[in-house]
Amino acid sequence: MAEITYREALNQALAEEMERDPDVFLMGEEVGVYNGAYKVSKGLLDRFGEMRVVDTPITELGFTGLGVGSAMVGLRPVIEFMTYNFSILAFDQVVNSAAKLLSMSGGQFPIPITFRGPTGAALQLSAQHSQALEAMYAHFPGIKVVVPGTPADAKGLLKTSIRDDDPVAFFEGEMLYNIKGEVPEDEDFTIPLGVAEVKNEGSDVSIITHGKMVHVALQAAGKLAEDEVSAEVLDLRCLRPLDTDAILATVAKTNRVVILEEGWPYGGISTTLTTLIQEEAFDHLDAPILRVTQADVPMPYAKGLEKLAKPSVERVVEQVNKVLYR
Amino acid sequence: MAESTKKKKKGGRKKSDAEMEVKAEEASEQADVSEETTDQEAIAAESAGDETTDEGDNQVAAPKRPDPDWQKAEKPDLSLDERLQGLEEDQLRQMMKDMLLARRFEEKAAEAYALGKIGGFCHLYIGQEAVVTGAVHAQTPDDYVMTAYREHAHALQVGMEPGVVMAELFGKETGCSRGKGGSMHMFDKERNYLGGHGIVGGQVPLALGVAWAIKYRKEERVMQVYMGEAAVNQGAFHESLNMAALWGLPVVFIVENNRFGMGTAWERASSLYDISQKSKAYAMPGRVADGMDVLDMYRVTKEAVDRAREDSGPTLIEARTYRFVGHSMSDPVHGVYRTKEDVEEHKEQKDPIRLFADVLDEAGIVSQEELEEMDDEAKRISAESVEFADEAPDPEPSALYEDVYANEDVNGRLYFDGRERP
What we know:
Radius of gyration of chain A: 19 Å
CATH superfamily of chain B: Thiamin diphosphate (ThDP)-binding fold, Pyr/PP domains
Order of helices and strands of chain A: EHEHEHEHHEHEHEEEEHEEHEHEHH
Number of strands of chain A: 14
Number of domains of chain B: 1
Helix content of chain B: 40-55%
Radius of gyration of chain B: 22 Å
CATH superfamily of the largest domain in chain A: Thiamin diphosphate (ThDP)-binding fold, Pyr/PP domains
Largest sheet of chain B: 6 strands, parallel
Largest interface: A-B, 58 and 52 residues
Strand order of the largest sheet of chain A: 3-2-4-5-7-6-12
Largest sheet of chain A: 7 strands, mixed
Distance between the termini of chain A: 42 Å
CATH class of the largest domain in chain A: Alpha Beta
Order of helices and strands of chain B: HHHHHHHEHHEHEHEEEEHEHHH
Strand order of the largest sheet of chain B: 2-1-3-4-8-7
CATH topology of chain B: Rossmann fold
Number of strands of chain B: 8
Oligomer: heterodimer
CATH architecture of chain B: 3-Layer(aba) Sandwich
Number of helices of chain A: 12
Number of helices of chain B: 15
Shape of chain B: globular
């Protein structure tokens, strides 16, 4: 084990998978000469050459479709969105091509593509550059959605995503690239899709979350511990496939649930989880399920307003106290 | 480049790539167009306070209604032998058989649609047969074909079994897409037929990706992608042409210009009438083919396919054609957007099958009698395809959740409808 950043973990995963399989290539804006807008692809152009680390024009719909088309004939593209905000321009190819070609062709054309890039808010990037779009992707059958929150999960899950035969939307946290963590050095280290992980054991309440919000949940759990509240933090790690067993197990264990996500509440991940829990674990609940999401507004620029809009440790603690009737 | 120079000698009037890019010629062509100023243009120029210049260098060609010989606009005046391009008699016969099958198959599909055996959208190809037959004959079975949703003839042209195509239209388990795709989403991996796409222009970037894969693997294959003229206004088209030229990808873009995007005439939809000229924005050769003449389609596509294979360079082809039927089965043949006379005139004077039959007759290759035999054969095959589709089984309920994910062997849940899987 070595302690490396989330960024380095992703870089290792890309390099290892490109080394392992000549059909894997990385394409996107500034991934080559510039070494990646967030330096995730640093050094890869020098190592693998310009057919495998490809700088594109700013043409998201075009290069996303290109990736899907190349996957139709067996390549395994990794398409980097400089941020997922820009993937909205490419969404037709994600939804109408990548997600549906296998089904529409009666099973003839699997699409082994990985889309990846940062999601969610950073600092004062305002409305168009701060969106957490996981729910939008998870809405469509045919796509898998992966949302790692730690360096080890980032590496293990990116490797699995690239090896998977389906389209995978892999969401990185824009504020996570610099965080450090222990990551196995073994080149065969992978983490299977659809396995959640309890990041903090607890018995009074379950905070179910993913991605960057795992860290908000852990801080909240720390604060709650000071008040002698034992909060379990379940990191979903994948949204589709979804580890429903782990969700139902933590609900059965604590009987109280707060769902925390960075995206908006309407039709969000938390909406689906709430439905699932009330359908399948209703009898285990001792309180209504509460949520912490982004404020239901476009992200404002002003520092104070932005802080108000984002999910926060304080909001989580508040909602936990409510489900505990404290 | 070498190839096109060679062709030039043969074709007489064909322009080389270099010549295509000569600005002076272009400017004079544009000036010609601008002389026939439309009312709209005059109004626009007046309101903008512009003074029109004779040079016309920066002028955009005004929307222009086609003259009666619009399809033949850039066709060289060739002798019979030159038109036949040294093609083997067998191949010429096959082209005729392919066009007849496309026609008769579509007629059967229309019948089946009227009987309720085919559902959803169903776009027929009647009138446009020369385009795909001529173009696919210009490449090899190793090359790829992809198109939009007016695609039954494309599926047949790459060699798919007519019964399997009809079964897909009927939504049957033994259809080419197991009844999941229907009229708009046919695929055949074995025959390098990549669909069958329903979003206007959406297939163009996909084709770019296939061409990318060809280059990536250093293969000598070619990607042929078809689209209707309305797709040319989509961003996907322009993004794809740019990258195809930027990276030198072996792709041939074939625009089937049947003049109407559903009910919108091209002159009402594009600021520039000549689609082939759009290639110039991407430093790519652009060509016009007579889409009612299978031999012209072959000639123009062959040059593009050879260039793609040898130099890995893309070409934009505007195939000027016409559909004799409505946009889909749910709208009338002419509607309010074109006249009955226009349709009738095309059917009488420009039917691609009749035009080709005349050529083959003149060349002494296919007699009237043999043509009738071929036609009977096409009708028989089409009728049999309906029988096959009629008898084919419906998909089992268990198929509902099949082929949604290729790799379902994962932990966790993939489906959230809370239903038992049948």
